[in-house]
Amino acid sequence: MLTARNLTKNYSNLHVLKGVSVSVSAGEIVTIVGSSGAGKSTLLHLLGTLDTPTSGEVWLNDVNLTLLKGNALADFRNRHMGFIFQFHHLLPEFSALENVCIPGFIAGVKKSAVKERAAFLLETLGLGNRKDHKPNELSGGEQQRVAVARALINTPDIVMADEPTGNLDSKNARELHQLFIELRDKFRQTFIIVTHNEELAPLSDRQLVMKDGRMVGQEIDDLPLIIGK
């Protein structure tokens, strides 16, 4: 489904990624772990096309994302990828339902259909009775579930999560990871999750360990260029 091959990222003389390759299959939960500064978030940003590699390629299904530019890239990212961050990045003036709808509206989907799906997702995530509440009226765990619903609104091929439990207490963190597992099982949703949480990372299907800008134990030549969905 998603394949990245030999990714590097340099900032002047600073080599943050040093030839990282990753493959993720549909319906898989993959966590990326490692110490601070190992390059985890940088890798996630490259996989999600939020940043561009110095060299290497990222493919999603049969599309070479490194060849897409400008509006074409932004449109592809909005339609095929979802994002969850440590801080929820919800717009405070909008309700939970409205926040969830935003990527669907940007994609040009009929508003009634977007609202219907947003309500379905919030109900699925246990927030059906909170859909009209604004972010400051929701708990941290509830806000993060709204962010999850927003990431899912366009039925993305893959969801990228950068420290999604980093701002949650242990109870809400466990519940969020369990939610990812339920979404994988119910919708065959694919996740790549960057996390420092050593308790929760083993709940994923596979852990990738990064150190000093490289993937530990990786043999680049062993990876195929494209993995079918």
UniProtKB/TrEMBL annotation:
One of its GO terms (cellular component) is plasma membrane. Keywords: ATP-binding, Cell membrane, Membrane, Nucleotide-binding, Translocase, Transport. GO terms for molecular function: ATP binding; ATP hydrolysis activity; transmembrane transporter activity. SMART domains: AAA (SM00382). Pfam families: ABC_tran. Residues 2-229 form the ABC transporter domain. GO terms for biological process: lipoprotein localization to outer membrane; protein localization to outer membrane. Belongs to the ABC transporter superfamily. This is ATP-binding cassette domain-containing protein. It comes from Chitinophaga tropicalis. The lineage of its organism: Bacteria, Pseudomonadati, Bacteroidota, Chitinophagia, Chitinophagales.
